[in-house]
Amino acid sequence: MSTQNKVLLVGATGYIGHQAALALRRNNYLVYGLARSEAKAVFLAKDELIPIIGTGEKPDYLDEIVTHEIHTVIDFTGTPTSTADILEKLQSIVTEKKFKVNFIYISGIWVHGDSSEKVTEADKPVIEKVGSLVKYRVALEEKILSLKDIIPSIIIRPGILFGGKADIWGVMFGQVLGSVLAGDSTVTIPLREELTSGFIHNEDLAQLIFLAVEKFDSANSAVIKSPIFDVISETVNVPSIIVAGADELGFKGTINFTGHPTFEENPLLESFDTNVRCSNELAKKTFGWEPKIHLAENLALLVRTWVVHQNEDFYTTLSKK
Predict the structure, then answer these.
(1) Which residue from 35, 77, 184, 243 could staple onto 179, CB 3.0 to 4.6 Å apart?
(2) Sorted alphabetically, which Pfam families does this protein's record hold (predicted)?
(3) Are 53 and 61 in contact (CB under 8 A)?
(4) Which domains does the chain have, with CATH numbers?
């Protein structure tokens, strides 16, 4: 019988979840992933990941954790109803079947809310300052923590993701790229010039998730004193990154930052425009983790990679620069 540790990822086919699944597999975990279709199941199977067919709307697939003796579940879904359903199902499994399971929820640093002051994991989010798109996470995190005696849990809050296709980069560079292609000389972006936030490369986040799972699975899990971890590599001024990236894209015009947008104007940008000055010290100390890929020194490569993911034809143009 295999003695390999097992883990189930809900969201294993997504941008964050798949990278985490690969990191766990590289470290000899048997990694199960929720697949919502046969095509997604094949996608997982090609990377030595074990698909479990199911849907986020009906968490009956979680019965498989008992069948396969999977004692860690990681939720990457990012929707309030799916996570609430997962928690309810896990609570039922734990209480009715006396089955031990650990839970890791992937949240985000925006849950801190907008502030010019430094914040830590110990600070309670100020709900009025949290972006409308992610406001639900405040109550969801509280729910997770309220169940910690039944379901031992960790909440991981990544900064703004970068690396590879990083869809969130469309917020920063989508309009710039469109202007370059159209030959426009002006770009207007509804963000504040003073916007500052933490960033993290997807692979560094994946490594942190692996270390968290490993610690949870070990006899040393008691050293996890705090259940919440902010995960960033650095804190930077966002407009400065946009301007530098625009130069890499060949944009020679003017970029105007017009201030904080309302939810009605742009729901995603309203949350994106959240000042967060947090630290990665707790994650580093608890898990022995150290981010390796930094945004500023890799910006040119990262922007080019993101652009090629938007359209492979851009590779020829960029490779001549």
Answers:
(1) 184
(2) Epimerase (PF01370)
(3) yes
(4) 6-162+200-231 (3.40.50.720), 167-197+233-277+293-319 (3.90.25)
